[in-house]
Structure formats: structure tokens, C-alpha cells
Design brief:
homodimer, about 375 residues, alpha+beta, Phosphoribosyl-aminoimidazole Synthetase, Chain A, domain 2, 2 domains
């Protein structure tokens, strides 16, 4: 996934007041194109022209009443959808629009990987208020395109509309999985090993940092205020430009392991562990000292005087994979870099608990991100 | 489609101030359930529990990272999506929420029929601001459920979120079509007959009526103001509770006709004719006196001093089907009730025109509904 690179310097947000200058043709900088000039069909055609179809299953893309998908051979189709609303899921004051487009796509890909599938198509619906120009929407689609290219996914449809209020992005992703090979949340069995990829809590700490710097900028009253993010690149990237773990799905297939249950960590590890326990009718024990945490995450938590393990367990937006495998797969899992075994599945009667460093057990409660709290 | 019946009297909107009293349990009327009490997962489970899966292709529905669809045999999958935003696509002051849910589903089904397919699954994402209670969302889902039952479609996934601003509904629909049998916009040939179903302009006139009565109510200052809609039921129903033309798709198959091109009339006949002409590389002639218009539509246009043909050609939201068939299919098409032949396809060089009653030709221009105007 390293070949793609979103350059921050070419990204503008509506609040910059110089929308599109750096990333769109010169004549547009001089005179921004208003969406109403293009109309809905002109806008759709402009936004989607740089999205060639690459998957053989994508038979017909944008431009008709519906797209046509033809799953190959004995494949099943996976469908997942996410709604991103301004002010709830993102703040355009500090989220570059290109990153936003990238993230909107990737979080959906992550859900398909979490079923052991491969994302193949997306539809993107977008509602934009009048403070957005065509150049802004171009930025969002530039991010969507980068994500589609990086993960081999086709944009096949969507809808664009004005919005009376904020920016709305709704992405639906279709994926493929060999028939019968989809991994649900419900297959975990007592004694299975619990595994998690990458590290946790970094995206949450990145958000805390962005929010703090935004407050500082507002208080400074200086429009040229430049936050210093040096040494914080990793936690910012985890928040602004997350990646989905295609590499892990490919590696699991490579070592011949099919997890008994799997999901992606979007709301926080605690919340996801409880989902798997509930769906599978099991309990679990995870060890505090096995929870993978990056150094930058730890430094930021200390600086903000926040509990590090709480952040890692409940922060959310990690888009790592949480999965369970039979004990007999232990050696094969150990061959996959970036996978950590954090505990094991128990009988339901034992409940879900974290084993602290001193050996005491703390019940796991969902304190994950709640869009309604 | 007559078996389903949405009763207006059981519908409330947030503006009624007595949300849910008539259609939810008594204890909720006494104390409306706040969304934050249920949380996101509680809300999803409440909203989706009454949606059993009926299609064999729906292998896994709501509750995992993605739904699993298994198209039968040699079927292709159709995908379409629509984003409905408060203040742009609907006004909750006069659109009952149950109707809104019904319409949100049906407009997507219509797109699948317009490809000669059958809708099978939907995902529904919804963003709700704090002025909506659980009872309101229940109403939207009651409408979605009615539509799913009437058309044999499964709800298989979605997303729910708070919204800082208005109500947001994003529906994606998957459908099935026999491989190679999808009808696109691009297959119309010169001399083909142009057909349209039902009648046009009624939904637009229904909207004009609702907007007028809303203004009158506001001006009257009387909170108990009751608009008189008697004799206007048809145009209101066309606006508030449109149906998709499953019957026509089934009838076309019944008489053995596959249209050369097809789309649904959502933005207005003029706009759709131009889409087919552009996609197919053809021109067209349609006869003013063949445009099907209901009596109530005509009466309303006269009352509002609006040009009737303009309303019928450009009104939009009819959700009728516009299609072309070879001349040789004329007799078979005549066997299908509710289909009108309104003109014929020409060479592209002749352009797109309407032939007026006096024989003069008026160029067809898209004045269809534009979400950005």
C-alpha cells in the first residue's frame, strides 16, 4: 500500500478561502466553477470520467439507471454501506477533502476485507451545500480515485445533489468472496486464539491532536497559524488517511488459514470483541499487555493525560482486523507480520474480560464511538 | 400493487408535535423514546427486526460487516443508489414519514425495473437530527417495510447516524437480471417506437398543490388549518407514494418483448428522451397529443395557470417507464394495458423534437428537475 501518496500540500478545504488554486487548472483558480453551471449531469460526467473500469465483473458503470455487475464463477457478492455526515463524522476545518474521499472509500473496503472478501465496486452519493465549488468536489473525487486505484476497485454509480446543510457522503461497496468462504462474526469457538492486526488507538489520538490544534488556532486569532505536527505524522495519518488490511486477507489465504470469525475495528476493540462474543455465543479473555500500541500513540496519550489502554480499547477508527483462529493455526498465524495474538475465546459463562498486568480481570464494556451520544 | 395501503391517518411528522401517538405503543406516546437511549446498535436492531429475508439470493442480512448475496444461476447483479436530503428532495412539513420511507425504496426499485431487472435487496442509511425521536424513525422504516413487502425486496444492511442538520436517507438497491437481458439507454434504433407507461405530470402537480396548501396554512396562522384535498387524491398519491412499474416489466416478458432501450421517468420526459437520444446516438419525434395526462393533472394545471404539456414533459418524479421497441413489436405492445406509443426514433441528424397539435416541431430541451438549480 505504500505506492500511493496523498500530498497534503495540494489539498484545500472550503475554509481555506483559496479553493482549488493548487490542484485545478489555472483558469478555475481565477474563476471557480460553480456547481450550478455544470448541472447534475455535467457534474457527474466531470467527476466520473477518470474512473476506468478495471474489474471483469464490472459490466456497466456510471451513466445508466443502474450498474451491471457479473460475479465470476462461484462467487458470492458482499454489500456494505457507510454514511459520512459533516459535523458528525468529519470536520472540514481540519480534514482535507482529498483525504476525506480516500477515507470514505477505504472504510467500506475494510468492511469487505473483514468478511474475507475483496472489494470490487463502489457507488458514491454526495450532497454538497452551496459553499462548496466544483474544485472542492474534484478534491473529494481525487481521493476516491486514489483509493479505488490502490485497492483495485471500480466506481460504478452514484448520485449527486445539492444539500441545504452540510456535506453528505454515502458510499456503498460491493465485494466478492468465494461461495461459502465469507467469514462472519458468529463462528468463534472456545479455545480459539484472538488476533488483531497493526496497532490500536492511534487514529483516536490523531483526532485528539487535530481537535486541540484547531482550538489553539481559533484562540490565537492568527489566520496564518501553523500547527506543528512534526513527530506526529503517524497518528495523523491513521486518523486522516486510514488503510484497509487487504494485505492481511491475502496473507491469511497465503498460509491457508480461514478465521472462525472476523470483523474490522471501527468502533473500538472493546465494542468489537463484544460483537463477536454476542454473535458467536462465547466469552473472551484479552491481555492488557498484548494490546498493540504505537509509540506516538503512547506519547500523545501521556501529553494529553489520557489513559492509554482506554484509548486503545475504545478509540475506534483503527480499521484493523480482529479475528479468531483455532489453536491449531497458531504457527501459521505467527508467520504473518503485523498480527498479534491478544487472548483467547472462552465459554460464554465466563463473560468478556481484559486481564490487567497485575493479573486482575476487568469486564469489557462497550465505550466505543457512538454517533448518537 | 393494490394490496398495499398506506393510511394517512396513522402518519405523523416531527412538526406535528404528537409524534408516534397513533402508531406506536402507548407507553412511548407518554414518553417518546430518545434515540440516544437505544444507541446505534439498539436502534439498528429495533428498526430491522421486522424485515425477514424472503429472497433465496439474500444469504446474510443485517448484523455483520457486510451482507452476503448469492445471485442465482446465470444472473447479473444490478446496482443503483439514491440520496434523499431534507429541504432538497422532501419537506417534512407535508411529507408523512411513512410515505417518505416508502418512496425512498420505490424510486430505487424503479431504476432496477428500468434496466429490465427485478429488485431483490436494499441497504438503507439514515442520518437523523435531534428533533426526530425513535417513533419518527419507526415511521420511516414502516414505509420501507411496506415497500419491501409489496415488491418482494429484502433489507440487508445499512447505517444509522445522528445528523447535525436535516434528515438524510440513502438507499442502495441490488437487483437481478438474466445475463445479457439488461436493457440500457443506448440501444434505440431509428424507426423504433417510443413508448411510455401510465401518465405524466401528476406527481409534479401534486407537489404544486402541497406547496400551495402549505403556504396557505402558514399565512392563515391557524394551527388547526386543514387543507381540502378532495378530488385531488390521485395527484397527491403520485407525489407522496409513487409506485414502480414492476407490472410492465412482467407484462413485457409475458408478451415476449425486450425493449431496445429503457429508463424510468424521474427527471421529466424531456430530459429522459434526451438521455436516450444521446446514449443511443439517435433523434426522436414525439407527438404532443399522445402524451398521456390524467384528468386531475389537467384540472390542477388550469387552476394554477400552468402550461399542461410543459408540466407533463418536464415535471419529473413520475416513475413511469420510457422505452423503445422495434416496429415489429407494435402489436405485442398494444396488448399491454397502460402503455402508450408517443412517437418514434429518428436518425440523429433530425434532432429531438415534439410535434405540436398544429404539426409544427418544437425542439425538446431538458428542463427537468435539477437538484443544483
Amino acid at each position: 500500500m505504500d505506492e500511493k501518496n496523498i500530498e497534503n500540500k495540494n489539498i484545500t478545504t472550503p475554509e481555506d478561502g483559496n479553493a482549488g488554486r493548487s490542484s485545478t487548472p489555472a483558469q478555475e483558480a481565477a474563476q471557480p466553477v460553480e456547481i450550478s453551471e455544470l448541472g447534475e449531469f455535467g457534474l457527474i460526467s466531470r467527476l466520473t470520467k477518470d474512473f476506468p473500469l478495471v474489474n471483469p465483473s464490472s459490466r456497466l458503470g456510471v451513466g445508466d439507471d443502474a450498474a451491471i455487475i457479473r460475479p465470476e464463477g462461484d462467487k458470492e457478492v458482499l454489500v456494505t454501506t457507510d454514511l459520512l455526515l459533516e459535523g458528525i463524522h468529519f470536520d472540514v476545518r481540519y480534514v482535507p477533502l482529498k483525504h476525506l474521499g480516500y477515507k470514505a472509500a477505504v472504510v467500506n473496503f475494510s468492511d469487505v476485507y473483514a468478511m474475507n472478501g475483496q472489494p470490487k465496486q463502489i457507488t458514491v452519493s454526495i450532497g454538497v451545500s452551496s459553499r462548496f465549488t466544483v474544485a472542492h468536489i474534484d478534491e473529494i473525487y481525487a481521493g476516491l480515485r486514489l483509493a479505488c486505484e490502490a485497492y483495485g476497485v471500480d466506481l460504478v454509480g452514484g448520485d449527486t445533489s445539492a444539500s441545504m446543510t452540510g456535506l453528505v457522503i454515502s458510499v456503498t461497496c460491493l465485494g466478492e468472496v468465494e461461495a461459502g468462504k465469507a467469514v462472519k462474526r458468529s463462528g468463534a469457538k472456545p479455545t480459539d486464539l484472538i488476533c488483531v492486526t497493526g496497532d490500536l488507538g492511534a487514529a483516536y489520538m490523531g483526532l485528539q491532536l487535530l481537535e486541540r490544534e484547531n482550538r489553539v488556532a481559533a484562540q490565537s486569532g492568527d489566520p496564518a497559524f501553523q500547527p506543528d505536527f512534526s513527530g506526529r505524522e503517524y497518528i495523523l495519518q491513521r486518523q486522516l488517511r486510514p488503510e484497509a488490511r487487504k494485505d492481511i486477507i491475502d496473507a491469511l489465504a497465503g498460509v491457508g488459514v480461514t478465521p472462525t470469525s472476523m470483523m474490522d475495528v471501527s468502533d473500538g476493540l472493546s465494542s468489537e470483541l463484544l460483537h463477536i462474543c454476542k454473535a458467536s455465543g462465547v466469552g473472551c479473555r484479552v491481555y492488557e499487555d498484548r494490546i498493540p500500541i504505537d509509540y506516538q500513540t503512547a506519547v500523545m496519550a501521556e501529553e494529553l493525560n489520557m489513559n492509554l489502554v482506554t484509548a486503545a480499547m475504545n478509540g475506534g477508527e483503527d480499521y484493523e482486523l480482529l479475528f479468531t483462529v483455532p489453536l491449531t493455526d497458531k504457527e501459521r498465524i505467527e508467520k504473518i507480520p503485523g498480527v498479534v495474538m491478544i487472548g483467547y475465546v472462552t465459554d460464554a459463562s465466563l463473560g468478556a474480560a481484559m486481564v490487567a498486568r497485575d493479573g486482575s480481570e476487568l469486564p469489557i464494556r462497550a465505550q466505543g464511538w457512538n454517533a448518537f451520544s
